[in-house]
Prior knowledge:
- With 358 residues, the chain is an alpha/beta fold.
- It is built from 13 helices and 13 strands.
Amino acid sequence: MSLNIEALARANVRALTPYQSARRLGGNGDVWLNANEFPLPVPFELSQQTLNRYPECQPKIVIERYAAYAGLTPEQVLVSRGADEGIELLMRAFCEPGKDAILFCPPTYGMYSVSAETIGIEYRTVAALDDWQLNLPAIADQLDGVKVVYMCSPNNPTGNLINPDDIRELLEMTAGKALLVADEAYIEFCPEATLAGWLQEYPHLVILRTLSKAFALAGLRCGFTLANKPVIDLLMKVIAPYPLATPVADVAGQALSEQGIALMRQHVAELNANRAWLFEQLPQISVVQQVFPSETNYILARFTDSPKVFKTLWDQGIILRDQNKNPGLAGCLRISIGTRKECERLIAALQALSVEQA
């Protein structure tokens, strides 16, 4: 008798639509503006040759350097395989499948729902307001049974910061009931907005960070969870025995050196300048309806015929990220900030398309 393998799988996994990462979506482009990566590789040399030994669970130099960079103590820092693992560890440590729930406010990062579905945890959504700020009264109505609230600031894919007064109100609302997790994957592009200084005041605040964006290390898969010691201690109970490969820890340690941080800040300044240039150019193009403010390394824009724009550019090797399926983002495409040359090529392609449609 043949065995139906699919029937053996958990029902929620059979029904799951996996997260469509930029690489899963594919494409044959040479101008990759769809994954919010840094556009150029940063050279590193591996110095650790002890690959015959298991790595440290929490590599000391990486933890110490990140703590110094974030203005925290080492006991407030956990390192993992990207911030994505941090998202999942929090659910595994704090949410009982079939009993507890998480909550987030779309349009936002897609992995919150995928991780919850994978583990079998209910997720609740409270749509953001028209300006993509939090709908606090609606969140208050949904908090019963919620253990973890995820809030992305600056938010992906919209690019806006969440109002700090609203964050304080949400922290008061969740005190003693749930964790508030601030996803700060893009905080290097607006460092003054970090909540890291709030950890002392709020024991239930957790912050997620990554080396994938401003540090130009998306291929490294290295992220951080910042929290008070009681939270970190619980996460250490559910993390894999060896979450960071030795070469990953080696490169992360170099990236977090004084020179590495200085280089990152130089890259941020370059990308912010390119973003400012795109902000000037995009509104002048007839197929562009609206350009939204951004504090990140990407811009969200609404187009008159976004499927045609997306496909025309795709066929020219310029790959953007379609946001049409996200609530409230009909007609929107997300544009990662590339090199100046890549930004110029994007604008030239959009201008040509506008002339064609005139």
